[in-house]
Each structure stands twice: as C-alpha cells, then as structure tokens.
C-alpha cells in the first residue's frame, strides 16, 4: 500500500464519516471449550439435580450379562442380535395382539442398529441407552409372501448379521444361495400376509430395505426399541443369549 | 480464497485501523464492534465428555461455555449468542426431560436467537412446543411454514436486534424434512426452498429494514460434495447477496476458521460452523465505522 493509496482511503473515510455504519473489518475465531475453562458455578449448580437424577437412574442395575457380547461375534447371527430381535418379539407382540388380535410373525432389525457392546457384569439402564441411543421405535408392517421372499434375497446378499427373531429360519448354501427359508417352521407362502416387526428407520427404507415400502398395512406401536430392551432386561436375572442356527450359511 | 490475498487484506486492515481510528477520533466518534458467538448441533451435550471418552475426552460442557461467554460479554457488551439448531437429542438429558434443561440452560447463558434443526422435532412438533415456555430466546426460520401447526407465531422468519446503534437482522433456514424426519413428527410444517427464502429475507432486511449486519442461522448443512444438487451453506452463500455471515449446522462440520465465499454480486460472505456437541464456540467480530466500505470487495477479513 503506497502513501497515495493511504491518503485516498483516508479521504474516503473523512467524506463518508457521517453516513450509515459500514463493516470495516471482520475477525473470525474458533474457541475451545475444555478443562482450561472453569465451570460457571451457577450453571453447574443448576444442572446438578438433573444430573444426579439421570445418573441415579442410569446406574440402576436391571440385569446381569454373563459374558461380553458384540455384534461381530458371528457371521450371520450373533448372540446380541438374537437377544435384541427376540426381545422386540416378546415385548411388542402383546402390544400388537391387544390392538389387532393378530400376532407378529417375526422381527427384522439391522446390524448397524446395535450401537454398542454388551459388557459382562451388571447391566444398567445406561447399557440400554448405549446399545440403542436413538429414539427409533417398533413398527409392524404387513408384508405379502412375495415381499418376504424379497427380504430373504436381500438378507442372502447383504452378508451381514442383521438380527432376526427365532421364528425365522434362513439357511444359505456355500455360494450364498437360499437353501431354505421358513417362518414358524413353514415355507414362505406367497398367498399369505405376514406381520413383520421392525424399526421405523428400516421401515422407511433405511439400509436399502426397500421391500418394506410395498406393505399392505402399517401398525405404529409407539414403543421405543430402547424401552423394549429396558423392559426385557428387567425381566431377566441374567442375560446369556446364544448364537444359534436361525440364519446361517452351510460350509458344504 | 488464496493465502496471498489474505495477507494483503490483513495488512490493509492494520493500516486502515490506524487511519480510521485517527480520522474517526477527529469527528469525536469511535469504531463500533459487534461480537457474534455461536454454537450448533449441541445435541443435549450438557456435561463435558469424560476423561475416558475415545474422541472428545474432557471437552465441551455448558457450564464452561457459560464462563467463556460471560468473559466475552464483559469485554464487549455488544455481543450476541446464537445457535444453529439440533439443540435436542444425544444424551439421556433429552430422553428424560424432553429438552427442558437444554432450553433453560440456553436461557441462563442468555442466548438471543436460535433456529430449528431436524432433531428438534424428535419428540414431535408438540414436544418442541411443550418446551417453548422454557426458552427466554427467540426462534427464527424463514423457510419452515408453521402456520398450520402448534408452533404458529412461536417462530418468526427473522429477528432484528439493535446493539450500540448497529441494526442486526437475523433470519433462519431449516433442512428439508421429508425423508429425514417422520411426517408424524413434523406434521403440517411446510418446507420452502432455502435459497429463495434467503433472497427474500436479505432484500427485506437490507432494503426495507436497512440492517447494518445480516446473519443467516442455517441448519441446511455446510456442503454435500457427493450430492452436487443438494442445497448447502456454500451454495447459499454463492447464490445470495447482502448476507454477511452464515452460521451453519447439521453436517457437524468442524471448521478451524470461517470459510470466505463470494456471493452473487462478487462480495465476501463468511460461512462458519463449529462441529457439534458444544466442543467449541464460534466467535466473529464485526468492526463498524461511519463511512463507505473500503476496498472493492467490502471489509477486510482476518480469520
């Protein structure tokens, strides 16, 4: 910047001094919120009773896990996934039955929906919040046999341990083709309509589960998956779910 | 923006600040400073992360944020505190109290204005409405039409605040709800095109209201590189004029400093976002002088 420029700008400033205020300079910064800042005492004191109440509830022991379970403990079905899908079945079916007089046929959840491990030892309310932090809730979709077959095709290709409840039995061959798919021990009947419980995320096409969109009816249970887990865990002294044969691939 | 231009601008700013100070002093007035503080996507993170946390150990915390905000307000009383949405959802505090504590704490920290994020519908529009009495601050959204919902009259398209004689216009923008939020949750809330609404807002705030500073509180997301057609703060900045600062949210983008974009008439506009969970506080200082803007491209920017 030369002297001439400076003088010019100086003149401009003098001329327009009486006009409306204009932005002359902007400074942007990002400030850290960390332990270098002392907490504001009034704010901290205000939070305290809420924190104590939540923490007390969160630490409430509701069951005991005999081992540590993770969603990686199995190729097509895992103990923790089986626990969740079976819990959705057993807790939601009475609600569904009371409303419709019908029963849920089976449950499908998603592998990605298991958000945390289940650690060996005391199971607290917090455990349920860790496994399922989201607000997703149970819905029951009425699916024709054709769409259930589409679902089986999806499961055979997804190559993930998407949790299913024990009423479903899906066996894949060595090359991933479907060898058998049964519900309550019966082959899937294309003339029948099945009541499939899932979460609202999958119902809305999450994880590419588009077969839910071709449903014959929807029942929103207003029952959060997390509350299902809490209710289910409370009924059991010990959680000892097992990996089983509900969804498997044969090696030969 | 290229580094070299920056350095030039910064140098210019230093020189000008000196001259401006002198000339203004001779007229008996003084350059004014407005400080804008902002958060986004705090997601019910009230307590700091614990020392064991894998990613954000010992970071965040509302009580610490309060200390920082208070110190900045003491230094400059002409400070505004804003939030760009997704106040709700992410810790059991929300599950237990439905957002009551979040709003009460924001009121204690004297937030001025917030916009509405998609997660603020997580307990339904009725759940949001139920917490409104706990909020001593205002909500703005120019592209959500709440007129057929319980939130009618509780959210305004924009808010004007005058600080030290500087007229500040703040408007809000929200993300498309269809496909992101269950219809049962947002009910009859109608979404409108954010860019069109922003153009309306900037015209109203600049030409009709004659604001000296225009801020957009946006929850539409910073940028979607894989979805070039999706509207974002970057696209918004380029397609509009007269907006000085876009404070964003939704994409949890951690910008170390504000991004400088060029608007539809070739002027600079700042876009900022501070990630999520209250780990950071954004701070943008605007200095005003009585007179015409200097330089061809408006004010000098130091980031």
From TrEMBL, chain A:
Domain 5'-Nucleotidase C-terminal: 72-211
One annotated GO biological process: nucleotide catabolic process
Endpoints of the signal sequence: 1-24
Protein's UniProt keywords contain Signal: yes
Pfam family, one: 5_nucleotid_C
Keyword Cell cycle: no
InterPro entries registered for this protein in UniProt: 5'-Nucleotdase_C, 5'-Nucleotdase_C_sf, 5_nucleotidase/apyrase
Domain of life where this protein originates: Bacteria
Alphabetical list of Gene3D superfamilies matching this protein: 5'-Nucleotidase, C-terminal domain (3.90.780.10)
Keywords, in A-Z order: Signal
Transmembrane annotation, as ranges: none
One GO MF term attached to the UniProt entry: hydrolase activity
Name of the molecule in the record: 5'-Nucleotidase C-terminal domain-containing protein
Organism, scientific name: Winogradskyella endarachnes
From TrEMBL, chain B:
The family this protein is said to belong to: Belongs to the 5'-nucleotidase family.
Keywords: Hydrolase, Nucleotide-binding
Pfam families listed in its UniProt record: Metallophos (PF00149)
An annotated GO BP: nucleotide catabolic process
Single GO term (MF): hydrolase activity, acting on ester bonds
Record organism: Winogradskyella endarachnes
Gene3D superfamilies (alphabetical): 3.60.21.10
Domain Calcineurin-like phosphoesterase positions: 35-253
Lineage of origin: Bacteria, Pseudomonadati, Bacteroidota, Flavobacteriia, Flavobacteriales
Designated name of the protein: Twin-arginine translocation signal domain-containing protein
């Amino acid at each position: 910047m030369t002297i001439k420029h400076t003088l010019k700008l100086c003149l401009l400033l003098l001329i327009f001094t009486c006009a409306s205020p204009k932005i002359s300079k902007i400074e942007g910064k990002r400030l850290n919120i960390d332990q270098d800042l002392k907490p504001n005492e009034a704010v901290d004191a205000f939070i305290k009773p809420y924190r104590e109440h939540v923490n007390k509830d969160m630490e409430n022991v509701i069951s005991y896990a005999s081992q540590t379970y993770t969603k990686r403990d199995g190729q097509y079905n895992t103990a923790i996934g089986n626990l969740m899908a079976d819990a959705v079945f057993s807790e939601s079916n009475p609600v569904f039955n009371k409303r419709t007089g019908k029963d849920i046929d089976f449950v499908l959840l998603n592998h990605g929906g298991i958000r945390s491990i289940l650690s060996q030892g005391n199971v607290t309310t917090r455990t349920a919040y860790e496994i399922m932090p989201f607000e997703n809730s149970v819905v029951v979709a009425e699916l024709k046999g054709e769409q259930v077959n589409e679902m089986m095709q999806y499961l055979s290709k997804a190559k993930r341990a998407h949790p299913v409840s024990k009423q479903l039995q899906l066996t894949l061959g060595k090359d991933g083709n479907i060898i058998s798919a049964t519900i309550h021990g019966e082959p899937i009947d294309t003339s029948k309509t099945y009541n499939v419980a899932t979460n609202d995320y999958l119902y809305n096409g999450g994880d590419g589960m588009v077969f839910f969109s071709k449903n014959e009816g929807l029942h929103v249970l207003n029952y959060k998956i997390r509350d299902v887990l809490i209710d289910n865990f409370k009924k059991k002294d010990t959680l000892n779910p097992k990996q089983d044969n509900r969804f498997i691939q044969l090696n030969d | 923006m290229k580094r070299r231009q920056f350095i030039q601008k910064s140098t210019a700013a230093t020189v000008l600040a000196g001259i401006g100070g002198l000339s203004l002093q001779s007229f008996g007035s003084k350059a004014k400073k407005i400080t804008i503080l902002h958060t986004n996507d705090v997601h019910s993170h009230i307590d700091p992360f614990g020392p064991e946390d894998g990613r954000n150990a010992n970071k965040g915390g509302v009580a610490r944020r309060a200390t920082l905000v208070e110190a900045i307000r003491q230094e400059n009383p002409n400070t505004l505190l804003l939030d760009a949405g997704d106040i709700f959802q992410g810790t059991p505090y929300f599950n237990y109290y439905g957002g009551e504590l979040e709003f009460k704490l924001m009121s204690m920290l004297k937030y001025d204005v917030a916009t509405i994020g998609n997660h603020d519908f997580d307990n339904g529009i009725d759940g949001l409405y139920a917490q409104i009495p706990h909020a001593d601050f205002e909500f703005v959204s120019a592209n959500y039409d709440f007129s057929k919902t319980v939130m009618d009259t509780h959210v305004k398209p924009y808010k004007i605040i005058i600080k030290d004689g500087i007229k500040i216009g703040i408007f809000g923008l929200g993300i498309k709800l269809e496909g992101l939020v269950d219809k049962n949750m947002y009910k009859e809330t109608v979404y409108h095109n954010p860019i069109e609404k922003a153009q309306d807002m900037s015209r109203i705030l600049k030409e009709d209201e004659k604001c000296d500073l225009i801020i957009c509180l946006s929850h539409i997301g910073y940028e979607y590189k894989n979805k070039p057609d999706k509207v974002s703060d970057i696209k918004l900045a380029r397609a509009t004029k007269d907006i000085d600062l876009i404070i964003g949210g939704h994409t949890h983008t951690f910008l170390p400093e504000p991004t400088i974009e060029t608007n539809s008439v070739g002027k600079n506009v700042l876009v900022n976002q501070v990630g999520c969970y209250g780990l950071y506080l954004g701070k943008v200082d605007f200095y005003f002088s009585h007179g015409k803007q200097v330089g061809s491209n408006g004010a000098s920017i130091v980031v």
